[in-house]
Amino acid sequence: MHGGPALGPVFERARYPDAHHVHWWHQPLAKPCAARPYLDLLEAALAEFRRVAAEAGGPLTVMASSFGAHLAVHLARQAPELVKDVVLLAPTFNPEDAALRLARRAFRVHTDHPHAGKLATALAMYEDDPGRPRFWDVFGALSLLPDVTELYFGPSAGPDAARSFAELIQQPGAFDGPTSVATSDDFSALDHTPVQSAFTGPVAVLFGAYDPMIDAEKDRAVWEAIFPQAAFFKVETGHFPLLELTLAECLTPA
């Protein structure tokens, strides 16, 4: 269950071309004028999960990255009998907070850039009047800064990781902006108070030591409320452990 929302699994498929045992699910696009695109996404994820589990003939490992963690929580809540175990990779419980943390980090890195002032103004206006319109102003200003994708990765990933990510995200189907906006806004309108999951099997949560989007200490308490049995691990990556570690390291962290 990849992140975004509205990111396609092109990054994972490029990183693991031989992982034929993994089902890299491509999230559907939001329907035009959909009333509740996030709820539609949850329904689509559950339907696909039930289909793949039926084909496999038994419970499955659910691996989710970033925003995809919310889809994993939904699957574990609605169909716990079909879940073998759950692996959450840099799960973002509050995507708006995560994006704002990234924007502040980008501003510190690019203070001298000609467009840095626009980002500073957008952030200040958000602080004075929080809400989705101001949030999207911040997001727009953030997009004016260069090399933002480099911030997603840890220092050991090397420049090729960020360059590959930037190239892949330009491919058709890699990311859909309108779907991302619609799904994000619908998500933000709901109550996301943590509720303990019905799933009681193994859960592993991996936080990247260099993740610019997540406050691991703060978010750990949230994910513990949902999965009290969870084991937590800090890995030497940024926001995409699956793109910096091996698949085996993500599934069985030390």
UniProtKB/TrEMBL annotation:
Keywords: Hydrolase. Signal peptide: none annotated. Residues 58-244 form the AB hydrolase-1 domain. SUPFAM superfamilies: alpha/beta-Hydrolases (SSF53474). One of its GO terms (molecular function) is hydrolase activity. InterPro entries: AB_hydrolase_1 (IPR000073), AB_hydrolase_fold (IPR029058). This is Alpha/beta fold hydrolase.
